[in-house]
Amino acid sequence: MAVLPRVQSFPGILMLACLFGVLVTATAAIHDKGKLVSLDGINYWVGGVSVSRLSSLATVNWNWTASDIVPLTVIRINTTTFTSGDLEETVAKFTASDDVFGRGFLEVIFAQYNGQRQGHIGSESTLDSHSNIGGNMLTFISSEYQPQQPSSLVHANLQKSLPSGPYFISPRTGDIFKAFRLYSDHQLAFTEGTVSDEMGGFSPLPAATEGAMTKSIAVPSRLYYTPTVEKPLAGLRCGVKDIFDLKGLRTSGGNRAFYDLYPARNATGSAIQRLIDAGVVIVGKMGTVQFANGDNPTADWVDFHCPFNPRGDGYQAPGGSSSGPGAGIASYDWLDIAIGSDTGGSMRNPGSLQGVFANRPSTGAIDLDHVLPLCHDIDTAGVFARDAEIWSTTMHAWYPNFTDHHKYPKRIFYQNSSFPRFDTDAGSLLEALVQKLETFLEAQREYVDIATRWKETHPNNAPNNLTELLNTTYAILTSVGQYRSLALPFYKDYAAEHNGRHPFINPGPLKRWEWGQDNGGDSAYNVALKNRTIFRYWWETEAYGKADPHTCSEGLYIYPYSKGETQYRNVYLTAPTEPPMGFKDGRISNMADVPDFVVPVGEVPYNSTISFTTEYMPVTMSFVAARGCDFMLANLIRDLQTAGILKPVSTGSRMYP
Ligand SMILES: *[C@@H]1O[C@H](CO)[C@@H](O)[C@H](O)[C@H]1NC(C)=O
Ligand SMILES: *[C@@H]1O[C@H](CO)[C@@H](O)[C@H](O)[C@H]1NC(C)=O
Ligand SMILES: *[C@@H]1O[C@H](CO)[C@@H](O)[C@H](O)[C@H]1NC(C)=O
Ligand SMILES: *[C@@H]1O[C@H](CO)[C@@H](O)[C@H](O)[C@H]1NC(C)=O
Ligand SMILES: *[C@@H]1O[C@H](CO)[C@@H](O)[C@H](O)[C@H]1NC(C)=O
Ligand SMILES: *[C@@H]1O[C@H](CO)[C@@H](O)[C@H](O)[C@H]1NC(C)=O
Ligand SMILES: *[C@@H]1O[C@H](CO)[C@@H](O)[C@H](O)[C@H]1NC(C)=O
Ligand SMILES: *[C@@H]1O[C@H](CO)[C@@H](O)[C@H](O)[C@H]1NC(C)=O
Ligand SMILES: *[C@@H]1O[C@H](CO)[C@@H](O)[C@H](O)[C@H]1NC(C)=O
Hints:
Blueprint: H1 3-8, H2 11-19, E1 35-39, E2 42-46, E3 52-53, E4 70-77, E5 81-82, H3 84-97, E6 108-113, E7 119-121, H4 124-129, E8 138-142, E9 145-147, E10 154-156, E11 165-169, E12 175-184, E13 190-196, E14 202-204, E15 216-220, E16 237-241, H5 256-261, H6 270-277, E17 281-286, H7 323-331, E18 337-342, H8 348-354, E19 357-360, E20 380-385, H9 388-398, E21 411-414, H10 425-441, E22 445-447, H11 450-457, H12 466-470, H13 473-497, H14 507-518, H15 521-541, E23 547-548, E24 552-553, E25 555-563, H16 587-592, E26 596-607, E27 614-624, H17 630-642
Parallel strand pairs: 4-6, 5-7, 6-8, 7-9, 8-10, 16-17, 16-18, 21-22, 21-25
Antiparallel strand pairs: 1-2, 2-12, 3-12, 4-11, 11-12, 12-15, 13-14, 13-17, 18-20, 19-20, 19-26, 23-24, 25-27, 26-27
Helix pairs in contact: 9-17, 13-14, 13-15
């Protein structure tokens, strides 16, 4: 935020100092953290770190403005003659492709000539007098560019060349700053806005505008970025669940005591670093169910407020534990992708309740150093997107070790009991998709029953009933795993810092940790790992997760993830007592380490008890393939979208308005 206006707005302090005759001579450690400005009614944050500097300032007459910061547009030109028509065309292109740029930035133009031969401004007067550009335009041109009438165009140089787009310039120093548009996080999807420190780290965004309980999030111009082979994700705006460490920021894990106890992290984990290296722009940390467990809104969310699901009446649960990333992608056009984690459904659940693309990758898809653990053995990191193309591109650039497959399986495994009746709203949408999938793959679904298949083919050392084997496996892995890897060190560090005190923990994780200790602790954990291995081996050898040399996976196991159900956030639920038990479709990937990708299918109506009108909730379907077949699934789902069988979703109340 602007430091100068603050000083000016507190004259009382200055007077007090005078009255008491105090003379303060110490050097103040004042640090400019950027400025919040409004341009043509839109709020911008002017980055605190200068990205370039304009030379030849002395020859410039700035006296038309009293402002200490002036909007500027950099235009890179490769034609030898640049006319007002070219300028109009450029402005139209900028406006169409970027939500940060606006005509107000044309107050000063820096025309950067890219061409080989010497360039010319077609006619200076045409440029100046063009009615749509407005009055006080000052045009700088790079020295390679020769104006035909050099009088009022100013030659200047940039210390460091800049991509086209909107910026701000300080007339006093010539420093140039990136332009960030400020958006309101009205759905409470974020825990903290962030900006790059331009040195490989981050700082909290020191700016906020109006809004009840909301933060502002700063997004840079899209014009700064062009995807390349090395940076295929260049410019994608990305939010990150607040369990991933970012260098320079604290990590909350959805717990206030945790956020306060530990200092800003000194490293970014390798998963997020890979995304940054591929070009994504991190704009903030996003809401998480406390320590990535399973809190329900609203009562379980004691420490933080639960993010808002925009679908339907706006008062349906966002799902968890990657609640903020899911809510953000379903709410904000200005956000492209969001990163969450999935241990037992934490990507798929928010993806399904908010009707966006969400993946649980094969376990081990990416290293999870510098990420708060729920269970090291089954934690994974996934990505949310509204568009299968962006989603697939992100996965390909992100996960290092999967093989790309463009041939798809010809077997579809379909369990009757998983699907709703065809004569329901959700059932007919899902059935329509399954039929299109059959046509697309030139395959017929095969009816399967997992419990029966298990009874017939399970290994001798395992019980006849699959639920008996796996009923408590997930519960033990997460409750015991997190107790020893997160809770114990946290308790110890907190007590050391606070005279032996205990930190506040939400009822959900607290009960789960206690349950794990009461139900076998570490020895049960080892049994759980063994049970999981038994299932995984069976799934890949006897069931529906076999590998295939040509199509990666022998088949696809499909099941509905959400069926348009409501989950009102103003309903009082019973207090949490234990982790989730039992076996269901969603547990296959947790136990067999296979990918499980949720895709939006459609939306079904319901009568809202909030708005007293018809609203719509998402229907989604899961695709499960063999272990390591993530790119095959991503390619298939992208191709289904290209074929019009799946569709990108919109933000807001309706997925398909
Ligand atoms: C502003 O610039 C104009 C033209 O160079 C000059 O005539 C005028 O005196 C300047 N005004 C101030 C306040 O410096
Ligand atoms: C010149 O710029 C235009 C528009 O930015 C671009 O489409 C074209 O490829 C560029 N040509 C060269 C030779 O760089
Ligand atoms: C980061 O912090 C950790 C733990 O506080 C410390 O062990 C490590 O040396 C630090 N790394 C750097 C690069 O400062
Ligand atoms: C990917 O493969 C490389 C080389 O074998 C290995 O070093 C790395 O740990 C693997 N990464 C993951 C996430 O498995
Ligand atoms: C599933 O339903 C289909 C169609 O109603 C039926 O033909 C098939 O036998 C059922 N399969 C199982 C395993 O229940
Ligand atoms: C497995 O056991 C559970 C719990 O006892 C029971 O509800 C379920 O019906 C059994 N499943 C089969 C296929 O026998
Ligand atoms: C699963 O385990 C829980 C906790 O031990 C138990 O209460 C429940 O009856 C079990 N369910 C089945 C189906 O075995
Ligand atoms: C492991 O499987 C056995 C059955 O073989 C079951 O009794 C036990 O509850 C399971 N334990 C866990 C933690 O999965
Ligand atoms: C909503 O309520 C009306 C009137 O009670 C009823 O006719 C309609 O079927 C309901 N719609 C849904 C989607 O439940």
